[in-house]
Amino acid sequence: MVEEELKKTALYEVHNSLGAKLVPFAGFWMPVQYQGIIAEHKRVRNTVGIFDVSHMGEFEFSGADAEQFLNRITINDVTKLQPGQVQYSAMCYEDGGIVDDLLVYRFEDHFILVVNASNIDKNREWICENLPLSGVDFDDISDDIALLSVQGPKSLEMLKTVTTPDLESLPYYHFLDGQVTGINAIVSRTGYTGELGYEIYISRSNSEELWHNLFEVGKPFDVEPIGLGARDTLRQEMKFCLYGNDIDAAINPIEAGLGWITKLKKGDFIGRDALIKVKNEGVKRKLIGFETSGRIIPRHGYPIYAGGREIGITTSGCHSPMLERGIGMGYVPVALSEPGIKLQLNVRKTEHPMCVVKTPFYSPTKT
Amino acid sequence: MNIPAELLYTKEHEWVKFEDDVATIGITDYAQGELGDIVFVELPQVGDTIRKGETFGTIEAVKAVSDLYSPLDGEVLEVNSSLEDAPETINSSPYEDGWMLKIQITESVQKNDLLSADEYKKIIDEA
């Protein structure tokens, strides 16, 4: 992508003034780090940090048939959602490959889907291709919505005095429609870090005001801005999938470990026939979590070996700031996917030991 | 951005310091900043021969891995073994304690292909 064509979030200048390193990501200039990935990662694990993730896409659906349509185009069961609830889900192609993973928000009279920035255009086209002629109104509101994510064990303490209605009683994967520091906001108890945390959706034009307010409110909690670099290492410690790395159009949700959001019994949906077949025949490969020893650090696309033969490939990997060793995710044959199994990771043409482990790799602070 | 005037540079962001026929090699302040937190560096061994323009090692930051390119031909005389346990020294002191290799050089003319501090600064400014 030509750099001039990259979009900027409303906080671009703020990030610049904070000394962030801004890089092209999913069509946007995004802050990859401010102070350093390890410090930012630990900030979120130990107290609280704020991410600008306004690049994420938001699609609004309304109309008499909106629920029915969303239940057909996503794999989780939308009919189980109460107003005020959020659901992790995905869209699949007819062959069971994943279009995108996403969140579904149910309001009284409409829905919002939150999708990956890198897939906004593709998702919009896929939805339009499948949209019925009437009964569903669909609007891509991504450019109007900003998203700040406040994550960490101190996030509730920090936000509760400036949020209405009451934040303390908000359960996991629920949202409220209210105000944060007097600014209209949708606040959901969701995140991509494994920690207690909240995602705050606001009008783009309120981004800067809310950002500054949150840093004022967060001062006693040592709040810091967190870049996408730490967002990636935080999600990897939890073995959360990243589209384009661990899941894509050639991978089905069952082998990716997303069987728990794949509701084959809910009735017809796009990809169901293919996924029933996968389920009946059993998956051939599975997404594992593994650790390396020494100073070997796995990355996306490294070959995995067993007995001198290439049997799989890594999809994500990094140095875990909390565990201080290499952790990774990858696909291997089911027979070799059990925790404790020892395999070899091919790093720059040399084999190094790796071990399949239970995940998440890291257990977040209990709150 | 720290770019010491007395050193020579490559466009791959390595620095070289010459003392008689020995060259000390490391990566620049700009390079360590771009890489972020460095967690591992893989270097050749004493006695290995490295070739100009070819990779002589790798550097792992939290986020990504990068190759290290040799600025000149030579034989490895000494490796900074403290980097094995404390690779973050490259972040904190790229030109001093974070040096990587000392090389026995064979041809002094190799200097001519390297960049001065001013020339290197121009490359950074355009990056």
From TrEMBL, chain B:
It comes from the Bacteria. The modification N6-lipoyllysine is found at K63. Coiled coil: none annotated. Residues 22-104 form the Lipoyl-binding domain. The keyword Ribonucleoprotein does not apply. The glycine cleavage system catalyzes the degradation of glycine. The H protein shuttles the methylamine group of glycine from the P protein to the T protein. This is Glycine cleavage system H protein. It comes from candidate division LCP-89 bacterium B3_LCP.
